[in-house]
What does this fold into?
Amino acid sequence: MLKSKVQDYFSKENTALFFPETGETEQLAQEYLLLGGQRMRPLMSVLSYLAYSKNDDETILSSLSMIIECFHKASLIHDDIMDEADLRYKKATAHKEHGIPLAINLGDYLIGKGYQILSGLPVEDRLILKSLKKIALSHVKLTQGQGADILLNVQKNDLTTEKALRIFQLKTGEALKVALVLGAIIGGAAESEVQILEQFSDLFGIAYQIRDDLNEFEEHNPDEKVNDFPFLIALLNEHFSNQQNIPSENILINDKEFRKQIVANNLVLQAEEVLHEYVERCYSELDKLQNAKLRLSLYGVIGKLFKPINADE
It folds into this structure.
């Protein structure tokens, strides 16, 4: 099974092959790469590569997985610092365990390591160059989205659904885009196929983040904060704007008052309608793919992730 194969790439022995040095930073990087997670992004990259390539070289598959996981773990380490999170995978976050300076450096190291592994892939130089250009652009866009997200802490009243969707596209869409596009390019996909995967990733990122808002709202976590629900904040702002009013400062600070307003104005249903729209657009974009193998695989991913909130597991 492909999922198990990708998981196996993150054994201690295999990971050590990509980190031959024995310094503290290298050892710490390996430690964080071995930490849990579903490995969804490496799986997407391998899936995309195998859909377009006739070559199932284990070196390439393993390298693609490691590249994507390096980028992913770096983003998690940096996100945890910015979010002041205490736990990740049920253990202390990097900055809590080792301090902020070392955690920042670790994230930076993993980003550099991802690019280093990519530059050494045993494929044509033109494919590496094309991949580097695409990934570097996504890296820039992701940081733009993260910056806009950070500013929401002081700009909640100004958040519109248009701004929220743009942030979702940049933050989450670009992360998936790197995985799918890297696999496709290295696998020899035509540019027309790559462009479809890019557009799909944008739509998927938006749908995923709206779904995340709705899931967290449904779970009613006792530690929740209003900032955990950016799309619902945007809908509430627009609801008040349509009434030529603005939500009081208390509503956007007090989680109980915020919940009360979301429920009273039926904004969960409105968010679900937007989610449904973007899920359908994901399917429509995939319909354009010429590669039936990848199209069907991504259909399955959408079907699994975007089941109705109250559906039986």
About this structure: Confidence is low (pLDDT under 50) at residues 309-313. The first strand starts at residue 87 and ends at 88. The beta strands are 87-88, 91-92. The longest helix spans residues 191-219.
